[in-house]
Each structure stands twice: as C-alpha cells, then as structure tokens.
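Hi, here's the filled form for the chain we discussed.

Project: internal
Contact: R.S.
Residues: 312
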Amino acid sequence: MYHSENQFSNSSTFSLGKEFYTKRYEKTIFISFLLVTLSVLTFAAFFDRDVTNLVMNRSSIVGDFFQKYGTKGPNIVLFSCFEIVAWTIYCSQRARLERLLLTTLFLILAMHQVLLGVNGYFAYTLARLLNGNIKTVADVDLQQWVLALIFTVVMSYLFYRYVDLQDENEQNYLLKAAVFGIALVFIVSVIIGDLKLHWGRYRPFQMDQAMSQFTPWYQPNGSNGHFSFPSGHTTSGWLLVYLTFLLPRKYHNMQKYVLIGTVLLAITIALSRVRYGAHWLSDVTAASLIVGTMIFVTSRVLKAHLVEDAIE
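And the returned structure, exactly as it came back:
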C-alpha cells in the first residue's frame, strides 16, 4: 500500500475539500447533448417509420454482433464497481476480520456479474473456443463457472494492484465512485425496465407489411408483452461511459480516452439497433437521453468532472 508522505501530498489534483463546480465545457457538452437528443425525438415523432424503412436490414453483421454482445454494459460496470469496493476496503484501516469478510463478499458479487456476463451467446462462443464439441447444457454450465472463476481471479489481482497503487485521497474517491456506480446501474435498470414494461411498443421487425401495429414513441400502450421503448442495448452501451469515473482523478488523459471511446461505442450500439430493426430511432434516442442525463447528474453529485483539469 501507499504510505509515503510525499505521495499523499503530491499525488492528485482531486481534493475532497476543493470547491466543485460544473465547468464551461461540461455545460456545453450537456446542453448540446440535450438539444440533439430532444431534436431527434421530435424528428422521430414524425419519421420513425420512414427511417426504419430506409435503413432496416436484418442481415446486418454489425447489428447481429451487438444483438448478441451489446447487453453487457451493466455487468461490466457492476463488476468494476464491486472489485473497487472490495479492494478499497481491503486496503483500508478497518479491522482485519471485517476487511476480509467484506472483501470476500464483494468479490463474490463481482464473480456473479461475470457469470451473468458469460450467459447466452457469449457462453457458447467461449465454449466453442475452448472445446469444439458442446455435449450437454451441464458441460456449458461447468465451463461458465470455470471461466468465471479464472477471469475473476486474474482481474481481482489486477484491480488489487490498481487500487493499492493509489494514495488515500484517490482510494476514497474510487470507493465513493464505485458505490455511486452501483446505485446508478440499479436506478437506470428500474427506470428503463418500467418504461419498457408499461409502454408496450412493438419492435420494427414485429410489424406486419402495413405496419399496422406501429405507435409513436409518445403513446404508451400498457403492458402487452412488447418492449421496444426505450432500447435496453442502448442503455447498456451508455452505462459504459460511467467507467470514466472509475479512474483516479489524476489519470487525465486516460479519462479523456475512455470517455471518447465509450461514447462512440454507445452511439454505435444505438445505431446498430435501428439498422438491425430491433428498435425505432426514438427508442435508442430516449434511452440515450435518460442514461446520459443520469450519468451527468451522478457525476455532479459525485463531484467529479468528465475529464479532470480539462481546458475550459
């Protein structure tokens, strides 16, 4: 662990006592984001069907890829948060037994996210890579557990090193960011899940030739077994943006790269859902608006900038 006095005094520009305010570039980004998403929703209120008719392709390779692998955002964020909580507790000054019990608990929760992440298509892909002959469901389940355990052990060591290298201020920040991240995932999941359940919107590929089941995005249909609005895959993509806040505040360049990379990935997933005919343009835009806003609000409560020390 870091115990050098020099490290404590010089490690990071992040300070718990420093006055926090939303920087000019952050206001510009967020206002632009709101204007774009609200403008697209307005456009989609009139042209949802036209956009789908123009771009829908159920044979899209990109669309098929993200159909299978685009839902793991919540698992990735929760796994990272649980690992950070586990190791910040372990590196703390708590009683030894308390540290061991809490660390073990959160590592189990982290492994559970890995098990959830390797379910479905991903499980069969990994199983085929390791063993060309999948004989029974039990074989797949066993491989999932083995893979999850190996992955968790390796990543836990890396996360331990990652947390242990930080000074006390950064560890306190990471713990707080991880707790907020866990809360964010669950709150967003409830909001998106409830909207999906009660909006009852048909997906584009479920339409008959005349699209007689089509309803505009602003018209809820009640719980009818259809879940197009808003897009769950797009939600998953945007949640990855929160990984930016799981970086120490002194890692300025890395924050910038992760922010840009995850935003581009989220947009790509959203567009792939429209291309694949799994969602309307308004579905992915609404999910983007909800999750993007929730992440920005969470970052204000967390008192963390999108990129620390960015030039205004």
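Let me know if anything looks off before we file it.
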